[in-house]
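Encode chain A's predicted structure.
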Amino acid sequence: MDWMYDLMEKTAVPMETPKAYGPFHLTFFIVGFLAVIFAAWKLRKLGDRGSRILLFSCGLFLFVTEIYKQLFYFFYIGHGTYQWWIFPFQMCSVPMYFLLIGPFLKNGPVRRGMYHFMMIYNLLGGVSAYFEPSGMVYPYLTLTLHSFLWHLTLVFVGLYLGLSGQTEKRMKDFGSASITLLALCLAAFLLNLAFWKASGGTMNMFFVGPANSSLIVFKDISRAAGWYVSTALYIPVVVLGGFLIFLPFWAWNRKRSRA
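Encoded structure for chain A:
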């Protein structure tokens, strides 16, 4: 597959790794956030068919760009060796699947669970990544653009779902999204165990172990007290962060329902 390596090499445009809160980061942060907020607000009144097309299109964008990332790492960086740590089952990878599946489902508990999860936890993930961008920057332009655009898409989808009426925004819906989170964490942990030997201990989906976390603060906790302590603290922190994201939507929904 030398031709594939050559193809990936042509896209390997080197760049100086962007610094946190440097010009590259701030441009995407400010302009990108303003753009997705404006787009989510303007598109909030789309009908059911238009909404399904929009969300599926977002999922298709994530899917196509993720294929490129996987190929780039396998052929160009790994020289034919799979890089298990980029297996697409992190919290910020889940919307790729939900957006491809959800628009084809009837409006029921499964679809609502997916949409509430994306409104709360993927919006949290997209915003958090921009505040702490170390996981989004690479010495290659295409990979960096992929990550920045990916997380902007998560922010857009979360805002759109919250503003468009696609989600009900009741307290029990936060519970539904959190149960989805816990189920995904369990699935991620089982995947980490299943591919522990194959990945050489590098696969850590959802950062729940048994490998030490690579996240800021939690990586220090992992080293000092073990991955299980880090995980036991990390999941409640994520749930708390999700609740803070959910509160403004909940309050806005209550205000509208009383009007």
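The chain has nine helices and no strands.
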